[in-house]
Write a structure and sequence with these properties.
Chain lengths: 323, 323
């Protein structure tokens, strides 16, 4: 039987975790003290936090500890990118039952570390305590490199709406896992990329700062669903966002999964969260960075915040945590 | 029956929470976007995070929502102070069951806000989601105002050890609540300050920067127990900490509670956590700020990290999360 964190004890565990965490040049003081100290070169720090709780935000039977670490880091690092920031550091609070295998915690740590490495950030500190459910409290910090933060509130009629990253892949992967239950291994190989997208999102981090430099007037990451998240931009900016279905046509893997499960693929494209794509509004004269595609435009605000081919979208989707 | 957060819905709840949160001058962008943006005047940010989980770190029957908010903020703000930092902002992740009363969340928010106000910080952002247990993921940020961070690693033989704040009060209050169970109202009035200390710690925040200015060579807050926390300083610094019992004599309220419960009050003084006192090592030539008292000295490292009147302390106490 594998060794548990309760057998190991808190302080030995913390030691084993922190030795796996290299500290980048922007970490002035890393793990092991009352707090970390992190460089904030432009005298401002971007900061965001999320809680992830077992069986609510992830399932151990559907994702490895490593992938849970990758995903937990990704969703917070993407929020920094969505402000136009470059992530610098992650802080991690972990609560777990004493009988949890030490290997689970170390694998999760490796996932957090490796996702940070993608963007040049470091896991600079944290906290470990006991809890019935595995719980991760993740905070990401970042630097704006002298740029203004790109909020949700600056979109103007006439702007074009651009997308970087995938839509609906993670939602489709989750639907496949839910349907397959314990038989997740039996999901056909051509649909495997969708399951992988659920387990390990690949936010287009570098396009956050690139879109800010290109003059983005508003930006957010797609964590709750495209229509819902663009609705926040539309409301904050006092505009309408007009999406074009042809620009969002579900790719073959999504269409195949939708056919296999008997669901509407548009519910994933327009309502699926967790891919952490970036959507931004750009002035019509701006040049979109490579890796972005135009998916709509910004119009005057009418009755609906978001229109899809001129109609409010009535499909399922969008995430509300208490329903 | 009071309204639940599930009835209200996530986005209305977030709106009600954020309207209660004034934003100080150092919050460049507050709640409502993908991330907050906070001023970091000296190009470095102090950052610390903790998870607090219902029935592990607090009990709703023993503490009001307001006090749980105060305490959750305090324990993180104290970590910033223990680096010699001035707290600037708090980020709060909250998970809660849908049936939780809206009033509970708003009262907890008020507690978080008011504890921040004590130090001039603001609740600048966060996240709300569903979970079976109420869970708070708190991150505190702070500024060093040009000073070097005071770590645990700089103590030198000959330094004096000074204490700011209370020891053992919160532990005694918790012991009283445990013994009283549902009859907590029956705790005698002269012991009420101990219960209050458990519910709402009063860390000596301002003495963190003051001790840094005074030349502190090492500092930490007492969150797990004096001997254990000083043990971290002793180990990190390669020294021994020699405490003096006469300087730590339990005050009358502690002695009375100990007599009432039939426990050794020294277990609270030397092993009790959660008061978030600050302990620091100062060069012998330094002048301790007002509000600190000398409780020992730093010696050469021998077999024991911490000595109490020349002996290793064998008493109960010190916190290990997985036991």
């Amino acid at each position: 039987m594998s060794r548990s964190i309760g057998d190991l004890g808190e302080f030995v565990l913390i030691g084993q975790v922190t030795t796996r965490l290299p500290q980048g040049s922007e970490i002035i003081l890393g793990p092991g003290d009352d707090a970390a100290v992190i460089s904030a070169p432009d005298r401002r720090v971007v900061a965001t936090t999320d809680l992830l709780i077992e069986n609510r935000h992830f399932r151990r039977e559907w994702s490895s500890a490593y992938d849970i670490g990758r995903k937990a880091a990704a969703q917070n690092l993407a929020d920094v990118a969505a402000m136009g920031g470059r992530p610098t550091a992650l802080l991690v609070g972990l609560a777990a039952p004493p009988q949890l295998a030490v290997a689970w915690v170390l694998d999760c740590t490796d996932g957090l570390r490796d996702e940070c490495e993608v963007v040049g950030a470091s896991v600079a500190g944290g906290d470990i305590s006991a809890g019935e459910m595995i719980t991760l409290g993740i905070t990401a910090l970042g630097d704006l490199e002298g740029r203004a933060p790109v909020t949700r509130a600056g979109a103007r009629p006439g702007d074009v709406v651009v997308l970087a990253g995938r839509l609906g892949w993670a939602a489709a992967g989750l639907a496949l896992l839910r349907r397959a239950g314990a038989g997740a291994d039996a999901i056909p190989g051509d649909l495997a990329p969708l399951v992988a997208a659920h387990r390990r999102p690949e936010p287009p981090y570098a396009l956050g700062p690139a879109l800010a430099l290109a003059g983005a007037t508003a930006m957010c990451d797609v964590s709750d669903g495209l229509v819902q998240d663009l609705g926040h931009i539309a409301t904050a900016s006092g505009v309408a966002v007009e999406l074009s279905r042809p620009a969002l046509t579900p790719p073959p893997a999504l269409a195949a999964a939708a056919a296999a499960l008997g669901v509407d693929p548009w519910s994933w494209v327009l309502g699926g969260g967790d891919d952490h794509a970036l959507v931004a509004c750009l002035p019509p004269t701006a040049t979109a960075p490579n890796g972005c595609r135009v998916i709509g435009r910004v119009g005057e605000r009418g009755d609906a915040a978001v229109l899809v081919d001129g109609e409010p979208w009535e499909g399922a989707g969008g995430h509300e945590h208490f329903r």
